[in-house]
From TrEMBL:
<feature type="compositionally biased region" description="Low complexity">
    <location>
        <begin position="47"/>
        <end position="61"/>
    </location>
</feature>
<dbReference type="InterPro" id="IPR050116">
    <property type="entry name" value="DNA_polymerase-Y"/>
</dbReference>
<protein>
    <recommendedName>
        <fullName>UmuC domain-containing protein</fullName>
    </recommendedName>
</protein>
<dbReference type="InterPro" id="IPR043128">
    <property type="entry name" value="Rev_trsase/Diguanyl_cyclase"/>
</dbReference>
<dbReference type="Pfam" id="PF00817">
    <property type="entry name" value="IMS"/>
</dbReference>
<dbReference type="InterPro" id="IPR001126">
    <property type="entry name" value="UmuC"/>
</dbReference>
<feature type="domain" description="UmuC">
    <location>
        <begin position="157"/>
        <end position="269"/>
    </location>
</feature>
<dbReference type="GO" id="GO:0042276">
    <property type="term" value="P:error-prone translesion synthesis"/>
</dbReference>
<feature type="region of interest" description="Disordered">
    <location>
        <begin position="1"/>
        <end position="61"/>
    </location>
</feature>
<dbReference type="GO" id="GO:0003887">
    <property type="term" value="F:DNA-directed DNA polymerase activity"/>
</dbReference>
<feature type="compositionally biased region" description="Low complexity">
    <location>
        <begin position="23"/>
        <end position="33"/>
    </location>
</feature>
<dbReference type="GO" id="GO:0006281">
    <property type="term" value="P:DNA repair"/>
</dbReference>
<dbReference type="InterPro" id="IPR043502">
    <property type="entry name" value="DNA/RNA_pol_sf"/>
</dbReference>
<dbReference type="GO" id="GO:0005634">
    <property type="term" value="C:nucleus"/>
</dbReference>
Length: 293
């Protein structure tokens, strides 16, 4: 029951990675503590304006704080559980807190590289003649028609993705954490529970930024709180994912490995055909209703 509630997708024989992709990002943020506290931020502007008041944001005619943050940080986009949060104020705090960090310097470098690629593509586009554009459109239209003609819709596939998986495992083992703002990780937030998301905390954020958001909650209508961090426990995630794999195989016996601990792709075609042909299975049979699960 509890294990199933926090399960994800990976086979029982999968190798537990010593450093999953999200954890490797921590190398970028390990030295990313801000050079100043939030009380007297004198960070240089990011994208035109980062100051101590919201007046320096969108009201000045420049890009909004949220637009600036999204341009630099993948972790500034919204996730489930973040409806109704003051995204503009949260983005302002993120920018103020992280402006002088090595993490932001790295993101600026990546952003400049993207700008250079875009400029190169636009320059190439300007050199394309109208006859060449017309020929390209005709080629694309023909290819689209070929793909549409070959489309097959006989199979039913689904992707199972467990939300806040790492946090769910932590809360399963320590139920007292369920009502607290909780993040898994350290230098980098690997995932956050739904409570923490009300403070704008989410996966991909540097740990010091996530902590600052919780401490400055009063600035966007939330209380000031301390964020609880717990370390990642990959062996536990693998165990729970193996339990989930047992369930997946009741619906798709051919599934062999998930796309990570918390995600799996299933082909339900044969299962659904059997359901239509034989009726709804009884409890205890493969695909049957499970009470108490």
């Amino acid at each position: 029951g509890p294990a199933r509630a926090a399960a994800g997708g990976c086979s029982a024989t999968s190798i537990v990675p010593s450093q999953p992709p999200r954890a490797r990002m921590a190398a970028v943020t390990s030295a990313a503590a801000p050079t100043q506290g939030h009380g007297g931020v004198t960070n240089p502007p990011l994208g035109g304006a980062v100051a101590g008041s919201s007046a320096a944001g969108s009201s000045s005619g420049g890009p909004s704080f949220s637009a600036q943050a999204r341009a630099l940080y993948v972790s500034s986009s919204a996730k489930a559980g973040m409806d109704g949060v003051d995204s503009e104020k949260i983005a302002e705090i993120v920018l103020q807190t992280a402006a002088n960090s090595p993490f932001t310097a790295h993101q600026r470098k990546l952003d400049r590289a993207v700008d250079r690629r875009v400029a190169k593509l636009l320059a190439a586009k300007r050199k394309v003649s109208e006859p060449e554009r017309a020929a390209a459109r005709a080629t694309v239209a023909a290819r689209r028609a070929d793909l549409e003609a070959s489309r097959r819709l006989e199979r039913v596939c689904v992707v199972v993705d467990f939300d806040q998986f790492y946090a769910a495992v932590a809360m399963r083992d320590r139920p007292e954490l369920a009502e607290r703002p909780l993040a898994v990780g350290g230098a980098l937030v690997l995932t956050a529970n739904y409570v923490a998301r009300r403070w704008g905390v989410r996966s991909g954020q540097p740990g010091f930024v996530a902590k600052e958001l919780c401490r400055r909650g009063k600035e966007f209508g939330m209380p000031s709180v301390e964020l609880t961090f717990v370390p990642a426990e990959y062996e536990k995630y693998a165990e729970v994912a193996a339990t989930a794999m047992e369930v997946y195989r009741e619906y798709d016996p051919a599934v062999s490995c998930g796309m990570g601990y918390d995600e799996c792709s299933l082909d339900l075609t044969h299962y659904l055909r059997r359901r239509v042909r034989c009726g709804v299975p009884r409890e205890g049979e493969p695909g049957g209703v499970r009470t108490g699960a």
